[in-house]
Design goal:
Elements (H helix, E strand, L loop, with lengths): L25 H22 L9 H13 L5 H29 L17 H8 L4 H13 L4 H11 L1
Amino acid sequence: MPTVKSGAGEGEPISSHAEATPNGDGEEERGRRGITGLAEDVIKGIMRPFDAVLLSRERIQSVLDEAAERGRITRSDANDLAAELFRLGRQQTDELFDRARRSVGGSASEFPIDAYEELTVNQVAKRLGDLTPAQLRRVRDFERTHANRKGVLDAIEQLLG
């Protein structure tokens, strides 16, 4: 049985205290299960289907640094590999969080900036700093297929790195 690895209740088994009932009370039951139920939902509904694992940035960097020290990979290649792994990890994390939000009743379909089509380039640029990378990509994709304003696209690319 999976265990909680950090925070209060460290090492305690994750177990479901209630299951969704056939009469549609799933959201109410989910709310009663609290953080333990949420952790179980994340593991069963998101982590396992994606065959996802959690590795810290520090751990990945440490392994690549050790490989470079042993001469198994060049320092430049290790740094490039780390950067790409972090980029891909952030992208997949954003996708997992979007999926998690949808599973608990949030909507990933809401556009991240209200009244977007009415805003100027400067007004959009001011709002971009508060967005997550997934939201920035969503705005970028929308912008490309609609107004395709260079100033907006450049600002988004700069924030995404």
